[in-house]
Amino acid sequence: MHIAVLTMFPEYFRSPLDTSLVEKARRLEHLTVEVVDLRAYGTGPHRQLDDAPFGGGAGMVMAPGPLAEALDPLEGTHRVLLTPAGRPLDQATLDRLAEFESLTLVCGRYEGVDERIAEHFIDEEISIGDYVLLGGEVAALVIIEGVVRLLPGVVGNPASIANESFRDGLLEEPQYTRPAEFRGLKVPEVLLSGNHQKVAEWRQRQRLRRTMQRRPDLAADFPDSEDDD
Ligand code: ADE
Q1: Which of 5, 82, 97, 142 to mutate to test the pocket of ligand 1 (most atoms within 8 A of CB)?
Q2: Which residues line ligand 1 (CB under 6 A)?
Q3: 52 CA to middle of ligand 1, Å?
Q4: φ and ψ of 113, to 5 deg
Q5: Whole-angstrom Cα distance, residue 124 to residue 203?
């Protein structure tokens, strides 16, 4: 996969792209990332990228000219604008984005981008949650990380992806590792029993219970998920 990131702050991406599985994916050439400095497309002596909104109001708007020039060579890639006004990101969206050969992530700043860019130069607008950040850079990193771990060969054990939170609409069950007793705190007995059937039933009950307690919005799809332990 190739990802182009359009940003006013290229330095934002340096260490995250050189760390962890993202670094591994780039080293193994599952992923190439090109960070494009939008400032290079700015106009005037200050390489300006923003302008006052037509109709008045507070804040500035990212002007269409520089963005269009930066996006022109990326036609044919799947172009995503990160904005709090976008559709909320979820696992299904990441699964879908991971299928593209070429993604372009446009990091908005200021009060937003000129709507003509959003309408004619962008394929979809995505938000990472109902809160407002300084710009789309963190959201772009969220997408890169969420997509990279889905690329074949990046995560060691593919089963760990197939069986995780949100894949079946439920949160993951709690996990424990050695020691079986830590500062007087014991691991649930059933996990030490060696009874695979009982362990599987316990895990499913825990997934339902957690989801009902923490994410009743997700649990609404499971009407017979009575907590029985
Ligand atoms: N830019 C600012 N806030 C954002 C958000 N919540 N999601 C995506 N891009 C953003």
Answers
A1: 82
A2: 82-84, 108, 127-129, 131-133, 135-136, 139
A3: 21
A4: -105, 155
A5: 37
For the full predicted model, state whether its pTM sits above 0.85. yes
Atom of ligand 1 nearest to the CA of 108: 1
Question: Tokens at residue 103, please?
Answer: 């993604």
127: phi then psi, degrees, rounded to nearest 5: -115, 145
The ligand 1 atom nearest the CA atom of 126: 8
- Per-residue pLDDT 10s for the chain (229 aa) are 999 999 999 999 999 999 999 999 999 999 999 999 999 999 999 999 999 999 999 999 999 999 999 999 999 999 999 999 999 999 999 999 999 999 999 999 888 999 999 999 999 999 999 999 999 999 999 999 999 999 998 988 888 887 687 878 899 999 999 999 999 999 999 999 999 999 999 999 999 999 999 999 988 776 554 544 4
Architecture of domain 2-148: 3-Layer(aba) Sandwich (3.40)
Q: Please report, for the chain, the start and end positions of each structural domain, with discontinuous segments joined by +.
A: 2-148, 163-221
What is the rounded CA–CA span in Å between residue 112 and residue 133? 12
